[in-house]
Amino acid sequence: MATQNIKPGLAKFSEDDVLRQIEQAVLDHRLVPGTKLKEVQLANLFGVKRGLIRKVLTRLAHSRLVDQTPNRGATVAKPSVKEGQDLFATRRVIESAILETLIGHAEEKHVQQLGRMLDREQKAYLRGDSERALGLSVDFHRELARMAGNSVLEEYLNDIIRRTPLVILTHLGGDEHNRCRNQEHEAIVDAIARRDVKTAKKVMHQHLLHIESKIKHKPEKPPADLAELLRPHSVGQPA
Amino acid sequence: MATQNIKPGLAKFSEDDVLRQIEQAVLDHRLVPGTKLKEVQLANLFGVKRGLIRKVLTRLAHSRLVDQTPNRGATVAKPSVKEGQDLFATRRVIESAILETLIGHAEEKHVQQLGRMLDREQKAYLRGDSERALGLSVDFHRELARMAGNSVLEEYLNDIIRRTPLVILTHLGGDEHNRCRNQEHEAIVDAIARRDVKTAKKVMHQHLLHIESKIKHKPEKPPADLAELLRPHSVGQPA
DNA sequence: GATAATAAAATTGTTAACAATATTTTATCA
DNA sequence: TGATAAAATATTGTTAACAATTTTATTATC
Q1: ipTM, two decimals
Q2: Is A111 buried (19+), middle (13-18) or exposed (0-12) by CB count in 10 A?
């Protein structure tokens, strides 16, 4: 049987829980673009009512993480090449503004905190834990946004970050291509420490262009395994 | 009786219709921050089921136009001073990027189209139709975003534009203060026509700073009339 | 009259049953 | 076999009834 409960009735998740879990699944490439998201299946999976799933799907559609078609349900969004390009271009603008704002009032403790994050990221990478390294790499960008202290910029960067995996999976090849380079993160922190806005922006710009340049059309992925949403490293089945 | 139907059963609105009408009401200051949005009242008002209103309110909350508190319903959002500042600061970044992108590929027809919009705006202003002038002024900014051709930048600017009236009404005085100055719009179009990115950005920057500088704390507005959402120039009652 | 407890009303939140639509399967015929 | 139509199933969409909670009104007490 395809649709199976995961400890039915045991784990009770709130609406935000479910939302975050699906977002996280997109973030670390477990949910791939095109995957059909059936309401009862998800409801069973999370042990919640269908109405709750319904609300979550609406919210996800609102932030463009899923596509909803009337009477035909929801699928994980497949952003167009154009949308991907626009997303990356906007990301450069936003991250640039974040750096400018942050450096405007950066203190020593901020630099130290960023240094610690670089260490963690480096260690994870060296020990071969690439999943963890990817997560920490994302956290690095998020932390810059948080430190900048502009809630709207932070909100927009998070929005872009959430949508980026869909662009990568739809138009880029494997996961190897999309990891941030730790060296570049280091160079950014160095520039911040020196209050060197120009260099910081330049490195960030290069850093982001690196990934963007690889966007191009790519053949469909073959249908994969069923939705084992909660288990890491698994992948849903495209519609 | 406070809650009255407006031709019940006659006008049937879709979910998007209702969403847009409420957004529009916020945009032209008919709905003021703090207004309680009761589900049955809205349902009667629009001649739709409560479930539909419920979905709309969720979506509005997601774009921070309304605040939702569990068991206590929804009110039109009252952004904090900080959020207002962040919003304006981000707007400068976004509009700057829009100008840069637009000027990068602006054609003569774009400039002409903008010129026509300036005329319309000026005429409305001269004939004293300030409501219409305000609308056209907003359209001007939107049109710049559309012409730039980056869907994400456009999306973010529209988000900011939708939220701005709430900041103004919460922290600024009357409506007179917040109108865009037509001269500045003209100067921007002139700069675009000359492909002068630097000047265009500078004028836009000043243009936006003008409003932002006026944000400060302001006493509560007294409760006003009931929700005559559909009728222009009317105002809802704060909670 | 003011305050606190209680009851009534209003409002929001949830659910299960049903309707409408789409998808898959089976049956029919050339 | 392959194509088409019909039936069966699965999935999404809607609704009304109910439950839970908050707000308002009423009463009781000092």
Answers
A1: 0.85
A2: middle
